[in-house]
């Protein structure tokens, strides 16, 4: 047993113990001087396991002994034991006087924050030996980040509340403690307030006056939400009134009775009146009483039929003073309707019977499907052969007809779908579809399997799984175009994936892949138009679309995806947003650069030409920009190409206007090389502003006696929207020239490209039309730049052992403040320090980002100079020279 580190608390001495076996003598040496034998306490015993002699020695160290030591080194003691086998020494055990100062270097400050806002409470504990441990109290109760994940305590003891809740309104205290004492900081009160919000307006009320002028009103309340904890009240009015006018109700009154009518054949006469003096209006009451009156006009001398006798009282239904007996016309009408209904039923029964007989006759005949075959061999089916088809085994020896034209489903001609254009068959070249003419013939399992799989398992289901096909198509795409994909296998040692000459790479730090796991990882640049995210008005695509994977892989620390962008002076005039393509193909927002918070899954470091995305989620990403002012601009790359060999009089110059990213220019160079084109001048950069002006291209100084332009106008223009939104890939225009004869073998002219009322570039074109001419060389097609995978420690500029020393030295907050925060400021990586503070090793993430920024030729001397400026001399000595 070796002596352990010890601390003297107040005036209480400490005792150091040491055991050795076998040992004949054992003593302590403190500060290079032997401790007197009298100060030792030595005990001897026999080890029960080995039977050897075991000696145990102990000494007592007082506070006075430690204080009397002068020198740069702390008080230390070492145990030395002798035996017949020789001498052995223990490690040095330091003895220090423990203390904890009373004053905190930084105490938390109270804050008032809105609901769901991020809160940062900072705390620097007092200086002490041993260093103090820190915990946080909420209303005098300890905070457990494991139990409540809304709290997070950083490596430098700061408390982060990710999204403030009403329940987080409390008093917070930072507590520092070691073996000597326990100190509390001043209490910081956090108040989470809620700003008031209006509810929905109620419906308009009825007019306040039933007759004449009044008003209607509607109300709303400041309860959505209700202001709390000093939150602002709602601005605006809670009641709205609207003038209204209600029409007064007018009750109806009867007019005077009319004169009696002449006496009729039924011995009665009539009189009537109207409810129009006045007529009821605006909801007024109707007149009460009868409209007509009748009475006997013969003083009872005329006898009336009992069936149609007039009632002295008005009828309850018709409101007049006579009965409503049925007439002969109504009886005739009802009889006619009944007769028509019976005839319709009879006709329907006859039609149904005829249809039934016709269908029965049709089913008993043969079905000839030749009219539906659409290129298939005719198949004749009879109902009587059903049993034979089910019992007879298929004849697998029959010859199959080879059908090479588009195959259609058996539907109407308007519904025919050519199966050979289906995306399911894109990855299966030279597919031959067999159509069997024998009614009992069925394809074998071998023919249903993948024609390119060889000995792979057979596919028994004719419908291929969509997800498997998607993965297979992506794999085939990567195999067909390795120039835009990098693949590699990585373990916990990490590495680097590089897409050559594209500005795209993926840094996998050591420890990102969990220990014991191996991932096959990839990074791909997508060039298809369909992969680019949709842009709204005012937006533009600023980077290529990049995928890295495998999706869903578990990572212990963030990887760094690097890609080029074309935003000019991005921090001043742009709002740049990172987009991610989800599994269903839709694009969703991830984070706006400069608006990161603790809850955002990524951090983006923007440089002048490249951006570095730190993320623990692998997927498909792209940068979109929104212009904030007319001064915002994006960089374009201009490239002019001509034919490598010209055997005709016509000569075509193609001018490309591309986003200024390496991969976009690389794609055009590859495409022109396949087309037999050559680069006529070095590509040039043009700043294109958000001024709504078009891009104008013109050609000048053509020798008039040797060449003539076939362009009718003086110039060509690309519209502002085409150039700005970046949705159209490889945007270009063509200038067509014609030489006077085949003896003309040289062309010298100028090509001007500029934004109307903006900047421009001029190409000095000189081309020789002979077959031996060479294209202008460019490093983007350099075959030597073919390294795509670096695995293990060789992938990083900083050796692993030195990285570990830097992390252990800079992660812990020292009194002078020259820790990882100062390193981030010196390296211009301090835009959002809270991201690094949430990581287990902030220094490690900063060094990873430095590696990605300066790949492949990072200057370690510059890094050593930064550490020297920070006063980290011991760290500086660890960094080797180049």
UniProtKB/TrEMBL annotation:
Cellular component aspect of the GO annotation? plasma membrane
Q: What is the lineage of its organism?
A: Eukaryota, Metazoa, Chordata, Craniata, Vertebrata
- Fetch the InterPro entries from UniProt: DEATH-like_dom_sf, Death_dom, Ig-like_dom, Ig-like_dom_sf, Ig-like_fold, Ig_I-set, Ig_sub, Ig_sub2
Q: What is the official name of this protein in its record? A: Netrin receptor UNC5
Q: Which domain of life is it from?
A: Eukaryota
**Which one of the record's GO molecular function terms can you name?**
netrin receptor activity
Q: What does this protein do?
A: Receptor for netrin required for axon guidance. Mediates axon repulsion of neuronal growth cones in the developing nervous system upon ligand binding.
* The Ig-like domain, residue ranges: 110-191
